[in-house]
Amino acid sequence: MPNQKHGTDPSWASHLCRSIYSQRGILFAFVGGILWSVNGLAANIITKTVGVWVIGYFCSICQLLLIPFLQWDYAERYGVAEVSIIILSGLCDIIVLFLACYAYSLTTVGNTGALLYSKPLFCVFLSRIVLQVKYSVYDVVILVCNLTGIALISKPPFLFASLTDDEIITEFYGSMVAIGAAVTGAFQFIAIRKLVERDACDRFLLLLVKGIIGFFLCSMVLATNLSHGGHIKSTYDLLWLTLQCGSGLCSCLFIYAALQSQDASTVALVSTVEVLASFLLQVAFTDDSVDLMDIVGAFMITICPIWYAVKGILCEYFDAN
């Protein structure tokens, strides 16, 4: 019989540490969500004076900073399928950037943030189709919560007939654009998970491809229509643009790192912490008001991440024992 004193068995502590480490993707997704809320605040402010294509141009250039960090030993892992998925991911990412910036220019920071992180609604569908992930009772609850939250925040005219003034209609259009960005972001999440399954995911390369696609696209638009949208006119504009580019880049790095250890739906759910941070930043730095329906809708979208985080850690811990 092993010589072991009661209370000195360290196995429970090591199992717990391994369980928490295995859920590091949740922490990365959490930090990525916070950084994206800062990106949203900067986008909401900068789009009042600077055009979306100019913002996209500078954000694309920032991706060049990642060249020294590329994992060159991954080159032999890239076949035709992997390259196609990488290009698809980069294209989806740059589309999300354009749509998100446009949405932030039409509606508030909190509302746009909440709708952008309704990705779980679409990740669940796509995960079932592409990744063969099975539905569960919890997925159904998540779908219902997300759909209800989206309706309360976007306030579609066919459901809220009494809200018909121009400002509400403009915010509804912004909400639809944000939902379009969420759908595109869900495709991007699934593409990254496919790369992870193929052991060919280099998050620095993904962002660099996004930058290359965005650079050529924005360059063509700006070269053919230089008067389209505003340009940087002051140091104030430059500071907010720098904050947006930096926080957006760091947010993507954290989210991509999270996707390498967690499934797409979990990452999308945990990163919805961005919604709460967006509303707090909106109250602190803008003049936009927050009404009760927005708060309830955001709550219904963000209530699930805590459950998924705790559930994941506890499952890993009990499995280890």
UniProtKB/TrEMBL annotation:
<dbReference type="GO" id="GO:0016020">
    <property type="term" value="C:membrane"/>
</dbReference>
<dbReference type="Pfam" id="PF00892">
    <property type="entry name" value="EamA"/>
</dbReference>
<feature type="transmembrane region" description="Helical">
    <location>
        <begin position="138"/>
        <end position="160"/>
    </location>
</feature>
<dbReference type="InterPro" id="IPR037185">
    <property type="entry name" value="EmrE-like"/>
</dbReference>
<feature type="domain" description="EamA">
    <location>
        <begin position="24"/>
        <end position="154"/>
    </location>
</feature>
<feature type="transmembrane region" description="Helical">
    <location>
        <begin position="52"/>
        <end position="71"/>
    </location>
</feature>
<feature type="transmembrane region" description="Helical">
    <location>
        <begin position="204"/>
        <end position="226"/>
    </location>
</feature>
<feature type="transmembrane region" description="Helical">
    <location>
        <begin position="26"/>
        <end position="46"/>
    </location>
</feature>
<feature type="domain" description="EamA">
    <location>
        <begin position="174"/>
        <end position="303"/>
    </location>
</feature>
<keyword id="KW-0812">Transmembrane</keyword>
<protein>
    <submittedName>
        <fullName>Solute carrier family 35 member G1</fullName>
    </submittedName>
</protein>
<feature type="transmembrane region" description="Helical">
    <location>
        <begin position="266"/>
        <end position="286"/>
    </location>
</feature>
<keyword id="KW-1133">Transmembrane helix</keyword>
<feature type="transmembrane region" description="Helical">
    <location>
        <begin position="238"/>
        <end position="259"/>
    </location>
</feature>
<feature type="transmembrane region" description="Helical">
    <location>
        <begin position="292"/>
        <end position="310"/>
    </location>
</feature>
<feature type="transmembrane region" description="Helical">
    <location>
        <begin position="172"/>
        <end position="192"/>
    </location>
</feature>
<feature type="transmembrane region" description="Helical">
    <location>
        <begin position="83"/>
        <end position="106"/>
    </location>
</feature>
<keyword id="KW-0472">Membrane</keyword>
<dbReference type="InterPro" id="IPR000620">
    <property type="entry name" value="EamA_dom"/>
</dbReference>
